[in-house]
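Ligand-bound model needed. 1-O-phosphono-alpha-D-glucopyranose.
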Amino acid sequence: MKSVVNPYLSGDFKTSQNSFLLQPISSEELHANKVSRNFWCNVKGKGEWSATGVSSSQQAKVFTREEEEVTLRAGVLWHSIHRVSKDMGLSSSILSFVPMDHQVEIMKVDIQNISNEEITFTATAAIPLYCRSADNIRDHRHVTSLLHRIKTTGNSIIVNPTLTFDERGHKKNELLYYVSGSTGEGECPKGFFPCVEKYIGEGGSFERPEAIIREKEPVGEGIFLDGYEAMGGIQFEPCTLKPGEEKSFIIRMGIATKESVIEEVGLAYSTVKDVMNALEQAKEHWEKKQNVYYETGDADFNQFMYWVSVQPILRRIYGCSFLPHHDYGKGGRGWRDLWQDCLALLIMNPNGVRKMLIDNFAGVRMDGTNATIIGEQQGEFIADRNNITRVWMDHGVWPLITTNFYIEQTGDIDILLEENTYFYDKQVVRGEEIDTTFTSDRKPCLIDKENHIYRGSILEHLLVQHLTAYYDVGEHNHMRLRGADWNDALDMADQKGESVAFTAAYAGNLITLAKLIQVLEDQKGMKEIKIVKELGSLLQEETQIYDDVTKKKECLHNYCYTCKQEVSGDFIILSSEALARDLTKKAEWIKEHIKKNEWITVGNHSWFNGYYDNHGRRVEGEFEKGNRMMLTSQVFTIMSDTATKEQVEAIIKAADEYLYEEKVGGYRLNTNFYEVKDDLGRMFGFAYGHKENGAVFSHMAVMYANALYKRGYAKEGYKVIHALYQQVNNFEVSRIYPGIPEYFNEEGRGMYHYLTGAASWLMLTVITEMFGVKGSKGNLVFEPKLLKQQFNSKNNASLTMNFANRNLRVTYQNVNEKEYGDYQIMRVLLNGEDIMVTSHKGRIDRKVIEGLEADRYHEIVVLLE
Ligand code: G1P
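Prediction:
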């Protein structure tokens, strides 16, 4: 149950793209649309009052605080709004949450008499029921209401549309949509308003419904109504409250497959007690999932990070499609989101991640590209239905980053030797050709010449992704941009565009791969690696081909042809050492090539050019309309160790000069190009300072921080994170709940909140770089990069997290109040006992951690001197 509420209790809820109980909304509809979870009180002698503030009279008036005061309280996945109306003598407290055991949203409404006199009122919950696919919002909106079959029972209005009417075709509908209600003591309602038309009346609206204004009689149970827009109007018996007295009502809104489930839900949440128990259970559930705690000297920062750590959980539930700003796609997540969200999962809930990683590799094609439509089930990838052939050139980068992080955290190098299938659909030769023989009824898996489904190791999948990318170059011998890279909006340079930024990222990864192969040899004695025969053609040691764009292209083309419809299934055996050497050479070649050709100097500043446009022209540097700099180009040259120390320092200066702006949250994604650069991407069509065109885009800003910390620039990394956090914290400008949004717009407002990959990266950066608590081949190491100002008044900074399935609280004690760079680790105490003395890096062997009891917290104290 994916629900959204705003302070007016507007916002939709659904279980998928095709099953919305409340009408789908995007950000604009939150105020433009009158649909909400309303709750009316008809007060004897005074008239009607909306306990959610959604009535035309309340909306028309500008209230003073004294007249109608509203307070919002919320925690992780619960929301409570409190409204006090002096005029009416009433207050309302409305709690909203989804319990753990059922697909239902609970709304508990408490109405209190805050006056000195007795008040008699009639309460009516009023929730318009949409009950169909999001596609129908303006595609057969009315026709699909003709499918509705509505009925009333003792406590519910149930809608069971006969058919579904969306891109899946006309199918028999299996779902029941419902609203049910009871008083807080479990009594049934008095009656119902099941039909929108009748409820609002001629000329009425949801903010001024005739049924409420004219106090119409509701219908009883056992009513059947076919072919109308459905209304979840539930009216309760009139009630009288003495001064100070309170009455509660419980509204349940859900989607079920059987009526018995609706009854079960009715029984499970029929009283205030049931609801409060379910709330406690839900709070506990989310608290358990969120098992990382940060304690620095800045309590607000600690709280902020608490909320950031909730975000990856939210993205797994909502994908990128189901919050008001996130109205793209139809559910599910993209390829890079899938992999990056695993980073946070690895920290918070590592169980099951191994299998998830292996399963996800089934999305890789033998030509190095990958499936982009990800199914509901883990490891399920769907062949392209919409004939969109688009290749994002960065996609090959993320699986290795995540897999390597997994190996470091767990020491499980064996994962590289696990096997999985390769994805196969009609898109072949890296999106350049279509296999017309492919039919969608076949399994989307690559076969060998014997017609068996081919399986290769995870290591082989990674090699396929990186080697193909290495040869996939444009005229400047950097990797082709193709459909775009990480920046989805660089999507108009398919022919001649190149992404130097991600070429550097691949170089960094090639080194990582070489190191992993070395670990396989050292730890498992694997002197040889087995790979599919065809891939051998991309492992030529003659380095002269590296400089030759034509030969590289030819080589890639030939390879893609050999595995276009099938692979031989034959293997070749390579020496591990030679393979690692080959990968390292390729990486070094890239780095040198970038350093030699893409380091640009303009006036007093220097930085890397990261892109070529569709005319094959360099994108960054000095231009008539102003100097052009992009953050992404700097991030990956720094992170991959392509940039030298001097270059990193120059980049920091240039970024401070061209990209940093404190009032919008720090480092912008790019300078203003003052041009709708349609030979590079749609981002230039966006207004400057918004989204991918020069906003402070949290994800890339955080990756910049990560890259800086990695290279030892803690002060500079901190500056990036601090600026983002300050911006969030400045509520008057950012206007968001706690957490990190996708970006801050030109005015500094937080946009596209919650469902952003920035959250995983921020957690990763704060934990493994700022606190420097991380795995190294499965062992736990401490490399703190905390600044002096980040320690609390007792000179401590702590991190509570899970490692090797043990709950640990790591406390750094900076007794001599030293600055980063001056302090060193002197001692490490585990549960009070010294386990290591004097070493630059602290480290606890995995075996020691695994030897600890599982169900309690263990204290690790790291003394800095
Ligand atoms: C979003 C997408 C991400 C993409 C980025 C830049 O970022 O989810 O895949 O790389 O835009 O175009 P997010 O909202 O995750 O920060």
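The pocket of 1-O-phosphono-alpha-D-glucopyranose is lined by residues 320, 334, 336-337, 486-489, 692, 699, 742, 752, 756-758 (CB under 6 Å).
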